[in-house]
Amino acid sequence: MEDFIFQNTTKIYFGKYVLPELGNEVAKKARKVLLVLGTGQVKRTRAYTDTMQSLHDRQIQVVEWNGIPPNPPLSAIKQAIELSRAESVEAVVALGGGSVLDAAKTIAAGHLFQGEIWDCFGPKRKCRILQALPVFSVLTISATGSEMNGTAVVTNDETHVKASLYSEAIYPAVSFIDPSYQVTLSESMTKYGAVDIFCHVTEQYFNQNTLSDVSDALSEGIMRTVLQRTKQILAEPTEVEPRAQLAWAGTMALNGLPGLGRGGGDFSSHRIGHALSALYDFPHGLTLAIVLPAWMRYVYKEAIPRFAQFGRNVFHLKGSDAETASKSIIALQHWIHSLGISTSLVDQGVRIDALQEIIRNESIPYPLGKLRVLEPNDVENILHLTNY
Ligand code: NZQ
Ligand code: ZN
Question: Which of 184, 212, 367, 369 is within CB 3.0–4.6 Å of 268 for a Cys-Cys bond?
Answer without folding.
Answer: 369
